[in-house]
Amino acid sequence: MPREKGQKVVATNRRARHDYSIEDTYEAGLVLTGTEVKSLRQGRASLVDGYAFIDGGEAWLDAVHIPEYNQGTWTNHPPRRKRKLLLHKDQIVKISHKTKEGGYTLVPLSLYFNDGRAKVELAVAKGKKEYDKRQALREKQDKREAARAMSTRSRLGE
């Protein structure tokens, strides 16, 4: 049986980039059951309410919704359960120091398969204030309008 190559994104948390300013990102492996992997391979998952935390020197991912596998039997998994994250010890220590610093949280950005292995991209992030969100939206809109104006100019031959 040939091994999978490349990266296949299952779910992304687009809201996280809007609500938080991202400081650092980490790639972590996931400890999953068989039915969770099969459900993910069907492209079914939601990171909307998900968060990660460090407890007793271990990293955990909580409140991520991976729906039950359709063909699963009594061995099916609960959709929202705590899942262990696989990170190096020094990364866990670094993340825990940063989150204990205050104002920082650990947010999942995306869930994907990398060469057949389930991975999650975690971000050490700080929550944005409401005015920061509005300012970011305004900057994004200004860039879009400037790009539109430039493309219109180039089409007109100016």
Automatic annotation (TrEMBL):
Gene3D superfamilies per the record? 2.40.280.10
> Its Gene Ontology molecular function terms?
RNA binding
Cite the NCBIfam families for this sequence: PRK05422.1, smpB
Q: Which family does it belong to?
A: Belongs to the SmpB family.
Q: Please state what the protein is called.
A: SsrA-binding protein
Where is the segment annotated Disordered? 131-158
Q: Where is the composition biased (Basic and acidic residues)?
A: 131-147
GO terms for cellular component: cytosol
Tree of life domain: Bacteria
Matching entries from InterPro entries are given as: SmpB, SsrA-bd_prot, SsrA-bd_prot_CS
Q: Name one Pfam family in it.
A: SmpB
Segments traversing the membrane: none
